[in-house]
């Protein structure tokens, strides 16, 4: 069965033109939807809870779940997850620190560390959005090659963050070829560097405005330069209120 292409949501995000990185906006939408799913009625379903109990959540997504303001739902999810962690850790603790054996045998201490590292690097939300996000990226290349209106949307967007510019640059060669690949590369080169410079100039003027000599001069488009620069540099999409 052919992989699904997400042409409607990808086009919708490019049409909005309200983010300094369209790929960050795609990921943010997926994260918001996944958190809403996790904090909705699904957390009462046994199969969902078995999974979240086992793998838990990364720090950023745990914070997003807390901000969702369903305290009872989050408490229930965390309670059974913590019970699972207690059960697994106690099994390892009962084995003791030393296991004996030869020079290269693993100690129980290593098993404890490996278990805690595994849990700290696993996340139900990350796993849930991973495949769809990959298909969103594949859809960008598909639309560029097959939708005559899409190249214009790409050229008119506000650009990309550093991470996602590199991602599109690298992955484009897996889906596009020949002149189409060259045209796509030129497009993302331009929209990245022009918009990165635009935000840096706004950031520079934001700094200059704190000089008393510029007190009476207009802010231009620099008032929200800091949160927009956070998107460009680190792929952080602050709440909309922080960008106004």
Q: Would you tell me the overall average pLDDT?
A: 92
Q: What percentage of the residues does DSSP assign to strands (E)?
A: under 5%
The geometry reads as globular
Instruction: Report on the biggest sheet.
Output: none
Low-confidence stretches: none
First-last Cα distance:
45 Å
Structural class: mainly alpha
Supply the key terms.
about 240 residues; mainly alpha
Kindly describe this structure:
Helix content is 69%, strand content 0%. The protein has eleven helices and no strands.
Summarize the structure.
The chain contains 11 helices and no strands. It is globular.
Write the layout of secondary structure elements.
Layout: H1 7-16, H2 22-39, H3 46-55, H4 59-67, H5 71-94, H6 108-120, H7 124-146, H8 150-156, H9 162-175, H10 178-208, H11 225-234
